[in-house]
Amino acid sequence: MSEIQNIVKKEAGNIVENSNLYEFSRDLIINSRKLVYQTANFAMIETYWRIGEKIVEEQGGEERSKYGDRLIANLSEKLTAEFGKGFDKTNLGRMRQQLSWSHYRSLLRVENPKAREVYMNEAADNQWSTRFLDEQVGKHRANGYT
User: Fold this and answer.
1) CA-CA distance, 141 to 111, in Å (whole number)?
2) Is residue 18 exposed (0-12), middle (13-18) or buried (19+ Cβ within 10 Å)?
């Protein structure tokens, strides 16, 4: 049995057994959708992190160079042509800035994709520590903004 099947089975077990069929089904669907969303978010965040890691490796760790600028421009052009927006030079540059895995784990807890992107950009552009990122997310979550 796959890990996903085990999680879905566990979630189904958490739903009260005395529920009627509709409530049971509804709760199971909602919980499964949340799981799919969380899994997809995790996969995309990990993908961005790994792309950034590879860019740094290809550039030899140098922040700015003609080769590095061309590398990101060429990569952006190809990825955007195949996958659409989200892979422009600015976003690839942010991926390259190499937020730590702890930063990305914090970003995973932000459910709103637009808010998550804002936090990712702010953390990368302003070199936020993980602690400061968590504080900002917590502050905005308390006010209902995330």
Assistant:
1) 10
2) exposed
pLDDT tens by residue, 78-131: 999 999 888 999 889 888 887 888 888 888 888 887 888 889 889 988 989 999
* 96 neighbors 55 (Cβ within 8 angstroms): yes
Contacts 24+ apart (CB under 8 A), 117-122: 120/48, 120/94, 121/94
Helices (H) and strands (E) in the chain, counts: 7, 0
DSSP-derived letter for residue 127 is T
Separation between Cα atoms, residue 93 and residue 79, nearest integer Å? 14
User: Structure tokens of 139?
Assistant: 């502050």
Considering the entire predicted model, what is its pTM? 0.64
Question: 126: closest CA among 78, 94, 96, 89?
Answer: 94
